[in-house]
Amino acid sequence: MTAPTARTVSPVPGPAAPVPGPAGPRLRIDLGAVAANTRLLADRAVALMAVVKADGFGHGAADVARTVLAEGATALGVTTLHEGLELRAAGIAAPVLSWLNPVDADFTAALRARLQLAVPSREHLDAVIAAAARTGRRAQLHLHIDTGMARDGAAPARWQELCRSAARAERRGLVEVVGVMSHLGCADTPGDPCTDAALTAFRAAVGTARAAGLRPRLRHLAATSATLTDPRTHFDLSRVGAGLVGIDPSGTVRLRPALTLTAPVVSVREVPAGVHVGYGHACTTTRRTHLVLLPLGYGDGLPRAANGRAEVLLQGRRCPVVGRISMDQIVVSTGDRPAAPGDTAVVFGPGDRGEPTAADWARWAGTIEHELLTGLGRRLHRTVSP
Ligand SMILES: *Cc1c(COP(=O)(O)O)cnc(C)c1O
After folding, report:
1. Three-state DSSP class for residue 345
2. Where is the segment annotated Disordered (predicted)?
């Protein structure tokens, strides 16, 4: 991805040019699955803002963005304005909203790139107003209220003041408040009363904005789970991220996972019972078995916490990962049957050929798919299929 400013240095510098060749683990991104998920979600939502934060949940933000825009999404959502600038650098012209920035973020660059900004406080509003005055560009804002998570968005006690300040800036022509947004804390549990309380608070917040003279045309509250399970939360727009890449935190529909991670067998050996495998000798063989070495580990995003539970698919069979997951390598036991160097193991995929899924890995590690997918390493060789 192109860095928007010359002095921006990514924390993990990539190679100057992509390293060609199939050797090593491969991560295949199935944009057809993203397209199918987008159609399903766009069908459920009034309008769809596709959330492509954290590099499109690890799937490649620009690739996911182009796919979802072709399938019915009308806008993109990101966390940092830097992520928004990267989308612009990739040539994406659709509306982009960025909702989490410190007050000293480069709002000038954001306005020059026509990014919309969420505003959670008076301090943020002042910084954006200053940038609007500097650039001569009217800022398109979404006022952001907390409706019961005590996380992001304005505290309810500060909301009226924020709305009135925004209305004054709107009358001066510096900003246009196009939206009011909030986020649900318990939507993954359909029927949770926490969502009823958030809905009440959100409606009241919109009322306060109108009373201050604002006319926000985009009221948005729902993310993936609420879009799938609770039409009361839909308002004018849904901000959907996880669902696009095949994660349904509400557990109510079948979406298509879009990633397949494979790794070649580097070496094989046959060992008797009583052999200790890997760091700390965490595993000791109980019988004669064949072991294979795969060249990926927690440095590539495989959670070390999946030790003792994880499996891969090799030669059509599920085989356990044995011993500790190392930074760069794992050992898999194939039992009586030897594998051969050059065979390919499926670490996870959509699950339709017997391979584990990312959801399986997340469960083995005691986490959620979101964390697994956004933590996949840059070292993996990525290929994109349409
Ligand atoms: C991440 C995020 C979303 C998307 O949530 P999903 O559950 O992944 O669809 C929506 N809104 C906000 C504010 C977010 O941070």
Report:
1. strand
2. 1-21
pTM attached to this predicted model: 0.93
The domains of the chain, with CATH numbers, are 7-27+258-385 (2.40.37.10), 31-245 (3.20.20.10)
Q: Cβ(51) to ligand 1 under 6 A?
A: yes
How does DSSP classify residue 306? Answer: G
Summarize pLDDT for 320-330 with one digit per residue, the tens: 999 999 999 99
Decide whether any atom of ligand 1 lies within 6 Å of the 240 Cβ. Answer: yes
Distance in angstroms (rounded) separating the CA atoms of residues 35 and 258: 10
Find out whether the beta carbon of 241 lies less than 6 Å from any atom of ligand 1.
yes
Q: Which residue's alpha carbon is nearest to atom 1 within ligand 1?
A: 241
pLDDT per position as a tens digit, 174-204? 999 999 999 999 999 999 999 999 999 999 9
| Cα 134 to averaged position of ligand 1 atoms, centre (Å) | 31
Residues annotated as part of the active site: 53, 279
